């Protein structure tokens, strides 16, 4: 049985119907790899656990900091929604401290400036 907490963070570009040229635009604009899901393109999932989720988010968002206007432009041009995903799996009997899941000001500012939504999935 798992005794450690787990956190995963990644960014998604979500769509109902895949817009032509979206993958090429994402690949050209941002210095990261994108992986196709049924209704989104996702960045690589960051699983390098840190008790403060903000440290993980800064790694996940590194290719996107300073490119908030590009995110908004792509979102408007292709009709996609960018979503920052945080998935926390907490183990009730873990000796580890509970992860810090509140967002720091730089992360909140990024979300606001880029019009990126965020989603927190919490499993205990």
Q: What does this molecule look like?
A:
The protein has 4 helices and 5 strands; from the N terminus they run βαββααβαβ. With 124 residues, it is α+β, with helices and mostly antiparallel strands. The protein has one domain. It has a 5-stranded mixed beta sheet with strand order 2-3-1-4-5, with helices on one face. Strand 2 and strand 3 form a beta hairpin. The radius of gyration is 15 Å and the shape is elongated. The model has no long low-confidence stretch (mean pLDDT 96).
List the helices and strands and how they pair.
Elements: E1 6-14, H1 22-29, E2 34-37, E3 40-43, H2 53-61, H3 68-78, E4 81-89, H4 105-114, E5 117-123
Parallel strand pairs: 4-5
Antiparallel strand pairs: 1-3, 1-4, 2-3
Helix pairs in contact: 3-4
Number of strands: 5
Strand content: 25-35%
Order of helices and strands: EHEEHHEHE
Number of domains: 1
Measure the end-to-end span: 13 Å
Q: Order of strands across the widest beta sheet?
A: 2-3-1-4-5
- What's the tally of helices? 4
Please tell me the overall pLDDT. Answer: 96
- Name the overall outline: elongated
Radius of gyration: 15 Å
Oligomer state equals: single chain
Low-confidence runs of at least 5 consecutive residues: none
Structural class by SSE content: alpha+beta
Helix content: 25-40%
Major beta sheet, specifics?
Answer: 5 strands, mixed
């Amino acid at each position: 049985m798992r005794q450690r907490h787990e956190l995963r963070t990644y960014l998604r570009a979500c769509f109902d119907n895949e817009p032509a040229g979206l993958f090429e635009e994402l690949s050209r604009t941002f210095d990261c790899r994108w992986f196709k899901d049924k209704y989104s393109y996702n960045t690589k999932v960051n699983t390098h656990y840190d008790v403060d989720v903000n440290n993980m988010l800064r790694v996940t968002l590194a290719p996107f900091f300073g490119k908030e206007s590009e995110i908004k432009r792509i979102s408007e041009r292709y009709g996609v929604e960018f979503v920052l995903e945080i998935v926390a799996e907490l183990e009730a009997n873990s000796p580890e401290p509970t992860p810090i899941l509140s967002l720091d000001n730089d992360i909140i500012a990024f979300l606001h400036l880029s019009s990126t939504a965020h989603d927190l999935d919490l499993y205990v």
